[in-house]
Amino acid sequence: MRAxxxxxxxxxxxxxxxxxxxxxxxxxxxxxxxLIEAVPPTRPDWLTVAPRPDGRFFYFTGISENAxxxxxxxxxxxxxxxxxxxxxxxxxxSGKSERITESHFKxxxxxxxxxxxxxxxxxxxxxxxxxxxxxxxxxxxFGRVHRKRVMDSSFRVSVLLSIPADEVETAISESRxxxxxxxxxxxxxxxxxxxxxxxxxxxxxxFDLVRAVLTEYLxxxxxxxxxxxxxxxxxxxxxxxxxxxxxxxxxxxxKSVTGTxxxxxxxxxxxxxxxVGGSMVSxxxxxxxxxxxxxxxxxxxxxxxxxxxxxxxxxxxxGP
Length: 320
What we know:
Elements: H1 2-17, E1 25-28, E2 31-39, E3 57-63, H2 70-89, E4 103-105, E5 110-111, H3 115-125, E6 133-146, E7 149-164, H4 165-190, E8 196-199, H5 204-220, E9 238-247, E10 255-268, E11 274-288, H6 291-311
Parallel strand pairs: 8-9
Antiparallel strand pairs: 1-2, 2-6, 3-7, 4-5, 6-7, 9-10, 10-11
């Protein structure tokens, strides 16, 4: 009898604890908000990995914030996917209007964002992608259940969007032409105010080391380098620098490394899109008594071998 009682307790705990999952229940403002329904019931694979371009279409996914209606959440998801498509193509679309922060559902604290913001994104995106199509939606309906009634409903929607390949490729081509023209104009107006060298994705340790070597080289060639700018002024041209190193076998008691150096000259427009003027990549080996000395030697060899090419990324600057 005692064994039966123990098993009964285990069964009850398992039954009650197993009816909720991390995805189905979350807490907001002290109220328990549950996933009431998901359509389709199973999460689609494209939520994890979007389909690759197939020659006819490019595919982008978008997700909405929690919205008070399903229709509004659908529009927000499509707008989010179009923003990603625009970023991929290198074009800028509007949609920076302020949100309406007043909540119409105080208990669930579901904000009702400005519909005009979503509409602006949808309207401006059509200038580039007039034939986009929402292929699939995944709709999650949340709410607080009280006495079998659903209260404070909110909706979150994900979408898989397809855009004809020719529209995406045309947008990319137009973006490149426009950026090349505007880069030359921006650089011609502003490079004398100084260049800001920024980390373009490598480790901060390698960046600091190579930036010191690069700054000395640029200064010797009459290029002003603006120092200590965490958030550079938009008027300053940027030199993006990325440095990666791989260890080689030590030779004659010396440390040896091979450095891969990537440099690009660019500006950022008002929408945060990079306007790139040119780029280069070089691999160079170096040796030294210490790891740091070997890395500096590789950076120096890079500039000795490819410095003139690097300076040609900067219009109006004469190489050595």
